[in-house]
Amino acid sequence: xxxxxxxxxxxxxxxxxxxxxxxxxVRSHLATCSNHPExxxxxxxxxxxxxxxxxxxxxxxxxxxxxxxxxxxxxAVVEVSERIGILARIRKLSARxxxxxxxxxALAVAxxxxxxxxxxxxxEQPSRATVSLSGENNASAIAYELxxxxxxxxxxxxxPLDAAHTYQLWSIASGKPSSLGLMGTAxxxxxxxxxxxxxxxxxxxxxxxxxxxGSLAPTTDPVxxxxx
Amino acid sequence: MEVLYERLGRQAFGLAYRILGDGPSAEDVVQEAxxxxxxxxxxxxxxxxxxxxxVMTVVHHKAIDALRSKRGQQARQVxxxxxxxxxxxxxxxxxxxxxxxxxxVREALSKLPEDQRRPIQMAYYEGLTHLEIxxxxxxxxxxxxxxxxxxxxxMRAVIRTGSGDELRRS
Lengths: 228, 170
Fold this sequence. Notes:
The structure holds two protein chains of two kinds.
Chain A: H1 3-14, H2 20-32, H3 38-48, H4 60-93, H5 101-113, E1 130-134, E2 140-147, E3 150-156, E4 165-173, E5 176-185, E6 191-196, E7 204-211, E8 224-227
Antiparallel strand pairs in A: 1-2, 2-3, 3-6, 4-5, 4-7, 5-6, 7-8
Helix pairs in contact in A: 1-2, 1-3, 4-5
Chain B: H1 2-20, H2 23-39, H3 50-70, H4 82-87, H5 90-102, H6 104-110, H7 114-126, H8 130-137, H9 141-161, H10 165-168
Helix pairs in contact in B: 1-2, 1-3, 2-3, 6-9, 7-9, 8-9
């Protein structure tokens, strides 16, 4: 599109009255051409047209609806803050092992993805129950019960996996495995998982290698396993 | 949000109602627009009336998209860009704000010759493209293009000079 063509379309462009592809062509031209200084001012004139419409009174419910939504947004922000607060507590509990920094971000995401609810801001408590998991080649893990219904699995000595595979955490109760989610692995073999589970309700915990994205049931023998 | 609503609620609803013609739809649009702006508030410079202009631009775009959707037409592929509000020179931006406050913009639009005002209204308040306007008014496309441009140029001149003389030179 050349300058003459753009000039011809400038009024319609300012009013967004061009088909999308033509509008985009004009916009691209204006982004790199200094021959149309009036374009921005014409857009500003169109912006001012918004004030040419007479004011009108909406119903009282509009304000009520708006304020209710804003309050909901604010509540959501508080919930996220509380969940991220758990991260700091997990770091303290995991002080025996250095939690890889890269995993901290993944953990925050995991916390939110797990939609952990009813997390109070109580005092710092030591984990109330732990499970030791062991495997070949000195791989090991400790599962902490952080809160009722929340466990943290802190593993080390795991071999790094290629992009096509992932570690998956399982709880086993009455011989039946249930997925507790995937675990990211750092290059040094450390991994961290957070899951919703009650240690008292399960017989053992296990970690298996599964195809990327995880499996509905374990497809390989555990690389880590421990009884509660 | 309460301040934003008190400041712009009536103006925003007036615009949405002018475009959509029914209260409930207009309120939905205003709610969506104000929440959109509210959620991006940290990215927006509220200085010198720019926030007001941006809010009204968002209301306009959402109302037109709702109108086009009602008519079974696709939403426009046009983005609302706050940065664009800032591209206009400070002097002209100030003049635009003064013109809005003094009612000059409304007067300038109403005093445009009908053959220029009508295509501008069809584009702005009805969300029609220049092709659709040409078809509706049974005018050659080139005529519609030049009337849109000429009408806006006159309004620009009025805003620049603060004088309605430009309108009398039609």
